[in-house]
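Recall the central idea of this unit: under ordinary conditions, the amino acid sequence of a chain determines the structure it adopts. In this exercise we apply that idea directly, starting from the sequence alone.
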Amino acid sequence: MNKIKASFFLGYKGIIKGNMGTTLLTIAVMTLAFINLLFLSSILLGLVNTMNRQGINNLYGNVVIEPEDKKSLIVNSRKVTELVESVPGVIASSRHYKAGGLFTFDKLKNGQEVNTGRYTIISIDPSTEKEVTDISKAIIAGEYLDDKDRDQILIGKDISGGYEGSFEKESLGGVVPGDEVSVLYENGIERKYTVKGIFNSKFVQSDKTAFLTNREMESILGVSNGAHEIIIKVDESQPESSYIEKFKEMGLKESIYPWNDYMGITSSFTQSFTLIRTLLSAIALLVAGITIYIVVYINILNKRRQIGILQAIGIDKAIIVRSYVMQALFYAVSGIALGLIVMRGILVPYFIGHPLKFPVGDVRLEVAANEILLSIVVLMLAGFISGYAPARKQTNKTILEAIWG
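Accordingly, the structure predicted from this sequence is:
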């Protein structure tokens, strides 16, 4: 205990009596290294989570129920929705019909400037859909649908064109609310609709989709109380697999899938971003460790004469080594503490109020707890090594070598 106390005393005096500028600079380097470890990784994690949330909030919900035979319908769909909504944790469900349609838009109404495009049409119960997806919140022109609408349609910006869409050349060339479009369905039925609203969800799959009411789609398909899919929103207190298991235990014979099975190419993007994030984090950890080692190593190297004098007056080598390890750990702990304060107290709140504007949505910093823990462990380990290795090397020299170099 006396030796440990002596190590603490020497470490404390080394910090207090040392050059204050050097001490502050060392702590600043530690702080920046820690922030660098978390910052870019947090942005990429926020980007991945934003893309995933867009899929859940704008098209798929958390869980999707489909008929066993993809070419048929879910029969008695209202009973199915009542059944799934009885499960604790389920917020709401919405039944959809889906169809393909050839859209035609005669901009000048004289046949001289006609644009066409084939798009997916999803029918909804508008009032119920508000509880499951955020399409009603994404309206950028016009209005959202009403449950009784029959001759009106809601289209995404990549169908309408003219709203900075990603597929302008494939769009209808500038549809605005109030314009009339003609839709030829796959079963040969053709209907004319007034565009009631245009939305921008910032999710490509939904922005190339049109919405109309279930009442209208049932008249086109000649069916009732059916659905091509039922999407379910849950409170996410449990994983989607847990809800799927409960639905199956209730006797549902339909096919049930989690949202991520439908993400398609977006899922490939998120997997790529996750891989990039892992690689960048690994590189940042290595750079941080090396930076800390170099800073502390130079600091100890400049005190080699002091180490030699301590040895000359009879201080044990182990006490000297431990004192420098404690100094290095002090720098590491100080840097970690300040880094956490900056991240949690300044950067994260700032980006909550001022998110980064990406084409896929607003991205905020999302700091993963396991990454914080890993960063702390790595910096503490780097601090220990950077204090132990050079101090051990200096104490192994003879007293004359340590003092005079």
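The chain has two domains: 2-55+268-404, 68-253.
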